[in-house]
Amino acid sequence: MILIIGGFAQGKLHYVEQHYVQREDRQEVPALDGTLRLASDSKITWATESAVETMPGKQTEQTTGRQTAGPQVIVNHLHRYIREQLRQGADPEAMIANFYKEYPDCILICDEIGNGIVPMEAEERTYRECTGRILEGLAAQADEVVRVVCGIGQKIK
After folding, report:
1. Global pTM?
2. CA 113 → CA 6, 124, 142, distances in Å?
């Protein structure tokens, strides 16, 4: 798994497209937006409905040149999924762990939301705390963690 983090509108998805997706072989890479549900995968039934985009390509780790064996899945806006699951009273941490087990070569993209002023609303504080804990766990398990600022990636792990 690769975890990509960064602020709002910092070019995280574009960075993934440029560094992890090869476009010459026409294999599609699903890019899920705020969901963990693949439109063609009936096994994953516990995620929110949202748009599914596809990008042609095959995931490659540029630092090692390793190609993955199975299909790649890119999850953009993971923080939106976490928020929606909390609103529904579900456990996003367990659901993300199940997704990671099913798709161990996935690329997860999440906004950094814990900086700035502490929100007055208890729901917002809970959302930020939960997202932070989930990202800590994902970063510990990830093969690679990259922070993207202004479209430039800084490898953390």
Report:
1. 0.76
2. 9, 10, 19
Q: What are the structure tokens assigned to 83, written together?
A: 């928020």
Question: What is the spatial distance between Cα 26 and Cα 157, in angstroms, rounded to a whole number?
Answer: 30
Torsion region of 34: left, alpha or beta (phi above 0 gives left; psi -120 to 50 gives alpha): left
| pLDDT tens digit sequence for 9-61 | 999 999 998 898 755 555 656 678 877 765 554 343 333 333 334 344 433 33
Structural tokens at position 23: 């476009």
Cα(81)–Cα(1) distance, rounded to whole angstroms? 18
Hey, which bits of the chain come out as E strands?
2-6, 21-22, 28-33, 52-56, 58-59, 74-76, 107-111, 144-149, 152-155
Q: Is 139 helix (H, G, I), strand (E, B) or coil?
A: helix
For 5, phi and psi rounded to 5 degrees?
Answer: -125, 160
The token pair at 44 is 């994953």
Cβ neighbours of residue 128 closer than 8 Å, sequence gap 6 or more: 113, 114, 119
Among the listed residues 23, 31, 89, 93, the one whose alpha carbon sits nearest the alpha carbon of residue 58: 23
Q: How far is CA 104 from the centre of its chain?
A: 12
